[in-house]
Amino acid sequence: MTDVPSYLSPTGQEIVFLLLGVVAVGAALLVVTTRQLVHAALWLVVCLGALAGCYLVLTAEFVAWVQVLIYVGAVVVLLLFGIMLTRAPIGRAADLDSRNRPVAAVVATATAIVLVTVVIDGFRTAYAPLEPGGGSAREIGSSVFRTWVLPFEVLSVLLLAALVGAIVLSRTDIRGRR
Amino acid sequence: MHVVYPAVVSALLFSIGVYGVLARRNTILVLMSVELMLNAVNLNLVVFDVWLRDRLHSGQVLTLFVIVIAAAEVGLGLAIILALYRNRATVDLDRLRALAEFPVPSPEDADDHLPENATEETAGQASRASAATGPTRPPGRDDTPEATP
């Protein structure tokens, strides 16, 4: 990490990453500012897909495909189900934003300024050369099942508990104890 | 790849998520913003794993764990939102300000929500009806039959 390449001559990977990052940030801005609820979910798909592309560029292939499968495939579909089941207004709705929107904008801008300043100041000289194969399914799988077995199993029990809890919460014929 | 680029993208995504959590009224939109913040953290984890060349791949494995936990969180959150919608007939965070079981509508609440529709009335009726039956009765879901659309 002693010889850091210049910022003025970006590599192809950096250009691709920056384009994907611009897509992700723009889609995220549209998620939090659009006036149509369903469009917010669809822009979330764009944002998460661009982030999966970012993971691919960063040689984390397995994480990228898990992101596509779970986030784009499952989480967004769940959110769309939630939108449908709460009978949200389809189409343009005027009251999606709360009244403390200026305060929220100020807080978010302050957060962005602080974080970006600190990050640029801290990691200006950091350079990570990308080598393919570091995040392949083989590497991650052997790492998960060799080193991280116990958290993995605990996580599966947690997921089971969360799903049982979701079923209990959404069934109407299970009553509380009197 | 300079580490600054992914870190800045992640910081921007996180602050956009902060804005969404603070500024949105619909609960599902707030959940979406929470997902944005989790994704910002995931991007950070992946890039620092690549930068530090961790032999155990702790960053990427932790990213997988965060993705799984986010899926569980969305499942539970949507179940809670649906239960809330069955009880109150709204998922509007600005209107869900009751901390007690039987909210007594105060006059400042009444003029606080001028553009009201029927949901606040039904909630008020439900609270009065359940208050009439006595405070020992727990608020079951069937106490507000008129709240279901």
UniProtKB/TrEMBL annotation, chain A:
It catalyses: a quinone + NADH + 5 H(+)(in) = a quinol + NAD(+) + 4 H(+)(out). The chain crosses the membrane at residues 15-33, 40-58, 64-83, 103-128, 148-169. Its EC number is 7.1.1.-. InterPro entries: NADH_UbQ/plastoQ_OxRdtase_su6, Nuo/plastoQ_OxRdtase_6_NuoJ. The keyword 4Fe-4S does not apply. Belongs to the complex I subunit 6 family. GO terms for molecular function: NADH dehydrogenase (ubiquinone) activity; quinone binding. NDH-1 shuttles electrons from NADH, via FMN and iron-sulfur (Fe-S) centers, to quinones in the respiratory chain. Couples the redox reaction to proton translocation (for every two electrons transferred, four hydrogen ions are translocated across the cytoplasmic membrane), and thus conserves the redox energy in a proton gradient. One of its GO terms (cellular component) is plasma membrane. It comes from Streptosporangium saharense. This is NADH-quinone oxidoreductase subunit J.
UniProtKB/TrEMBL annotation, chain B:
The gene is nuoK. It catalyses: a quinone + NADH + 5 H(+)(in) = a quinol + NAD(+) + 4 H(+)(out). GO terms for cellular component: NADH dehydrogenase complex; plasma membrane. One of its GO terms (biological process) is ATP synthesis coupled electron transport. Residues 120-130 have a biased composition (Polar residues). Pfam families: Oxidored_q2 (PF00420). The chain crosses the membrane at residues 6-22, 29-52, 64-85. Residues 104-149 are annotated as: Disordered. NCBIfam families: PRK05715.1-2. It is a multi-pass membrane protein. InterPro entries: NADH_UbQ_OxRdtase_chain4L/K, NUOK/Mnh_C1-like. This is NADH-quinone oxidoreductase subunit K. Belongs to the complex I subunit 4L family. NDH-1 is composed of 14 different subunits. Subunits NuoA, H, J, K, L, M, N constitute the membrane sector of the complex.
